[in-house]
Amino acid sequence: MAFADNLQSLPSIDHIAELQLIDADGQVAATIPNAPGKAGSAKVYNALAAKHGGINVAAAEEGLQIFAEHTEDAKARPGAHPNIDRLLEVITSGKGYTVKVVPA
User: Fold this and answer.
1) 55 Cβ neighbours under 8 A, 6+ residues apart
2) Sign of dihedral through CA atoms 28, 29, 31, 32?
3) pTM of the full structure
């Protein structure tokens, strides 16, 4: 399935302003706003965190499947899709993130 189709199956994020990814040291490593151009990633990360309790290796592997055609593009063009790059890094390093939801 295509990314757009996969997004349709995920829960709404209308109630979310942004997601904060917290690293093992308790620091905010990244934020993903619920904003144009980033809302799809926020929706994916929110669903993964709800299902897996955070962004761990299993969540990252599932996320790559959800991102579908964008995953291959991210592998071919590192830096073009930072939220996919982050999932690839989680798989490689084994180091994940706790996700904090910032309400809208």
Assistant:
1) 21, 45, 48, 49, 63, 86, 87, 90, 96, 97, 99
2) negative
3) 0.97
